Amino acid sequence: MRKTLWKVGLSAAVVLLTSTSAYAQLATQNINATAVVAARGRITLTGAINFPDTDPFVSPTINAAGLTVQALARVAVGAGVSLTVQAGGNFVSAGDSIAIGNLTWATAGGAGFNATGTMSSATAQPVGSWTGPGAHNATQTYTLVNDWAYAPGNYVVTLTYTLTSP
How much is the pTM? Predict the structure, then answer.
């Protein structure tokens, strides 16, 4: 019986010695992984700003369907971010025009968005402002004064949204 125990003990020692030598650490080396992250911004406008013809006596103002505004900003943690909108001029149709100041908006939802505003072609109007990176979403509802003095026509104006960070 002693011989059997001795053989088992010797076998276990051989396995243990063989196992530890297979995991011997011979060398290590470190390498740095890098990632370049630049400041970025993106504006997504979903919907359209269309004002249907209505009787000015019945509707002194016309609302367009809501425009969904998403402003995405990847900036430093304490950096300011602002979203503005500016008209390219007045509404025009052939030689006729509607003053751009007759176009206003109201904003629903979205922290940091301005609740109301009046369009201008002379100065970019603030739509929203935030601090640091993030995604900001709201719905803007545009309203146009409906006046008997407008000449018939299909009027158009370009509105330019700009996202900036110093």
Answer: 0.81
